[in-house]
Amino acid sequence: MIDFSTAPELELLRDTAARFASDHLRGNAREHESARGVTDAAARAWRDTGLGLLEFPGENGGAGLGALARVLVNEELGAADPGATLALDSSATGLYVSAIHPAQRVVVVCDLESRLTVAGGRLSGSLPWVPADEPAVVAVLSREGAAVAGAPKVLEILRGSGLRAAGASAVNLDGVEVLSQWSDRAAAATALARVRLYTASLLLGVMREACEYSRAYAVDRVVFGRPVAHHQGMAFMIADMAMAVEACRLLLHEAAWKLDRGDSDAAAVCARAFVEACEQSMFVTPSALQLLGGHGFMQDHPVEKFMREARTLSLMAGGVDAARDDGGAALVEAARVEVARTGGS
Amino acid sequence: MDLELDRQSRDRVTMLAALGRDTLRPLGLEADRLGRPIPADHEFFASLVELGQGRTRWRPGHGSGGRESGQEAGRTGGTLAMICAVEEMSYWDRGVAVAFPGPGMGEAAIMGMGTEDQKQRFLGPFVEPDRPRWGSFAMTEPGAGSDTSAISTSCRRDGDDWILNGAKMFIGNASRADWIMVWATVDRKQGRGGHRAFVVEKGTPGLGNFKIEKKMGLKAYESTSFTLEDCCVPAANLLGGEQYYQSREGTRGALRTFNAMRPMVAAMAVGMGRAAQDEALIFARDNGLLDRTRVRDRFERIDRRLAAARLLAWKAAWLADKQLPNITEASMAKALAPAVALEAASLGMELLGETGARGDHLVEKLFRDAKAMDIVEGTGQVQRVIIARQLVDLPRS
Ligand SMILES: Cc1cc2nc3c(=O)[nH]c(=O)nc-3n(C[C@H](O)[C@H](O)[C@H](O)COP(=O)(O)OP(=O)(O)OC[C@H]3O[C@@H](n4cnc5c(N)ncnc54)[C@H](O)[C@@H]3O)c2cc1C
């Protein structure tokens, strides 16, 4: 039976994330951005929440929760500060690739076009950007499987466009020793789906916050004798933005639910949700800035940051084109099967 | 029909391209990296003055009276020539182009509304400037942007002076300017009818609290807020003198300045979009992406929309030069081009992928710079309101 409600324990979890985000992230977002990292107080409070162990298995002290829990939590964290989230939740996506130790600073690289190579137990290649100043572990996820390696050589510390609170660097992996490795196309596809879901749910949070912040501003700010929001052109824009957020949220929830059930089309549905989040974020966040007019262009308000965060997040997880490929391929394959079954009638 | 630029404009663009490549682009990137405007005493500005830049179009003794500002817009052949120049400058760096010394947007207002004495006093120093000099144009306030009729900076006559009180915001080049053209009101209830424009000179007591805003992009020039606290301005600095405002014409002064700017801002956005396209193409070529259909489709879209935006800007400028009505075309150009520029930069970021996330690529800077173009000189929404008034008689609110 169709039921859109979430279980009470997931609601509690979401509340925990929302409270942490309000108490430690939202108000410090500019500080975290310029510090390229989070305050010690925020890091301590984060550990106290236990959210960093959300999906880790019970035997590692984790909560053993699944994709839906992840999506609910990430919407809250992404709404407050996706860069700080990457800094705090430092091993979350690493877990999708390998049984790593919690709390290590792992960057997962979705290498879907074989830019990196593994030979003789060592990696080679370099990466123009990873969202960390000094990653301890690099987990390379390809179409075939994964390779986990130690700390890469940092070539350059970068300013970063968005997600500055996570830090940013260019790294070289030549000669870095591979610590563990596996190949399994199906498992790789699932891991990629989880990374996409993780990223897209942070994007969802950014979009929601952008919507809410700009909506509140537009209700308050009067132009030509009326609130900005009551000019019909803007009211329609705000409605379209809210629609985009709700549609993305539902696609993400569906994708998470399917992943948790182990459905065979879960990976394709995750790819679809990721593409939607990427596309809509480039409508929602610039529109939010626009709603504030010149004030949106200034760093006194967070909307310019939302736009940068969204643009950067939507370049991650192997990029949007690869996800379009995956979603499209699954669609075409399903159509072929259907045609074969019905004989084309 | 002839859609080829004349020789003179082409030569000017070639000259600007050299200047752009050598100085505008590197300076813009540097200002972005440092996160601050190019300092007023930077040798670049002095060198521009030596090159003959930073001057006024006004010539002593050739008072241009009430001529349309559109007609005056280009030293060399009108608005069309001017927009080709600003497009090229913005291709290299729009922020640096705005930082150029010169009288700025106030110039057209002084030429159109000012008395001979005011032209001499405020534009005279820009005829052959001895050093980089700036003029600044201050309309926007914390509480009033799009709706200029709602400005609340007050002015009241006090003997031979006027006393100004209020706050202005986002004002280009304000803290370095010799003078700021400040728009104020004698009575808010009168809307535009109550507006007065004052040339407030640097160092006038009561003019202060300059604060340079932290912006998302366009960091090479300063956008500054400041306050006027019992700021005492001589009556001789009331633009056009008192009687000017008794006529209906007077209240339209500021709006006309804005109208002439629209095709220009559109052209700037086209320049920025072209820069994003070119840089993304270079990246795609160097990374072997050009044969991918999806990549080619993106470029085809950017290219097509940039071409349309440029033609719209050209047509609006051509109409202005012919002294034909161009309200709709100017607003269409201004509404379309910034959206296309942002799209070009955003699709460019998508092609660059992680390279775009580094925060040190020109396409990434353009992604941050371009958004402002949909806000300055009348937001995209305001342009649509103007177009709709022409097309469907949209009532004024
Ligand atoms: C980089 C930069 C440089 C600038 N330089 C200068 C300068 O040198 N001098 C100067 O005077 N000003 C300058 N400005 C200010 C600029 O002109 C204003 O920001 C602009 O006019 C918008 O005003 P606002 O910011 O108050 O937005 P608001 O007027 O508050 O608008 C908020 C939102 O409401 C929308 N809106 C407004 N009216 C309507 C309507 N009728 N129907 C539907 N929607 C509507 C707007 O489009 C916008 O999305 C600058 C701004 C920037 C960003």
Keywords:
heterodimer, A: 345 residues, alpha+beta, Butyryl-Coa Dehydrogenase, subunit A, domain 1, Butyryl-CoA Dehydrogenase, subunit A, domain 3, 2 domains, four-stranded mixed sheet, three-stranded antiparallel sheet, 54% helix, B: alpha+beta, Butyryl-CoA Dehydrogenase, subunit A, domain 2, four-stranded antiparallel sheet, three-stranded mixed sheet, 7 strands, binds flavin-adenine dinucleotide
Number of domains of chain B: 3
Largest sheet strand order of chain B: 2-3-7-6
Number of strands of chain B: 7
Overall mean pLDDT of chain A stands at: 95
Low-confidence stretches of chain B: 63-76
Radius of gyration of chain B: 21 Å
**Helix and strand sequence of chain B:** HHHHHHEEEEEEEHHHHHHH
Choose one word for the global shape of chain A: globular
**What is the subunit organization of this protein?**
heterodimer
Please tally the helical runs of chain B, counting DSSP H or I stretches of 4 or more residues. 13
Strand numbers in spatial order across the main sheet of chain A: 1-5-6-9
Structure description:
The complex is a heterodimer of chains A (345) and B (397). Chain A has helices at residues 8-25, 29-35, 40-49, 67-80, 82-88, 92-97, 185-220, 232-261, 266-291, 303-313, 320-342, and strands at 106-110, 117-119, 122-124, 126-130, 137-141, 145-149, 153-157, 169-172, 178-183, 222-223, 226-227. Chain A is α+β, with helices and mostly antiparallel strands and 345 residues long. In chain A, the strands form 4 sheets. Chain A has a 4-stranded mixed β-sheet with strand order 1-5-6-9. In chain A, strands 4-8-7 form a 3-stranded antiparallel β-sheet, with no helix packed on it. In chain A, strands 2-3 form a two-stranded antiparallel sheet. In chain A, a hairpin with a 3-residue loop joins strand 5 (137-141) and strand 6. The mean pLDDT of chain A is 95. Chain B folds into 3 domains: 7-111, Butyryl-Coa Dehydrogenase, subunit A, domain 1 (Orthogonal Bundle); 135-246, Butyryl-CoA Dehydrogenase, subunit A, domain 2; 249-392, Up-down Bundle (Butyryl-CoA Dehydrogenase, subunit A, domain 3), CATH 1.20.140. In chain B, a hairpin with a 2-residue loop joins strand 2 (154-158) and strand 3 (161-172). The longest helix of chain B is centred in the last third of the chain and has 34 residues, at 253-286. Chain B is globular and about 75 Å long. The relative contact order of chain B is 0.12. The chains are: A alpha+beta (345), B alpha+beta (397). Chain A binds chain B through residues 127-131, 158-164, 168, 170, 223-226, 231, 233-234, 282, 286, 289-290, 293-294, 296-300, 304, 307-308, 311-312, 314-316, 319-321, 324, and chain B through 33, 140, 145-147, 150, 169-170, 213-217, 223, 294, 342, 346, 349-350, 352-360, 364, 367-368, 371-372, 374-376, 379-381, 384-385, 397. The structure holds flavin-adenine dinucleotide (FAD). Flavin-adenine dinucleotide sits between chains B (137-140, 145-146, 170-172, 218, 223, 372, 375-376, 379, 381-382, 385) and A (221, 223-224, 228, 231, 233-234, 290-291, 293-295, 297).
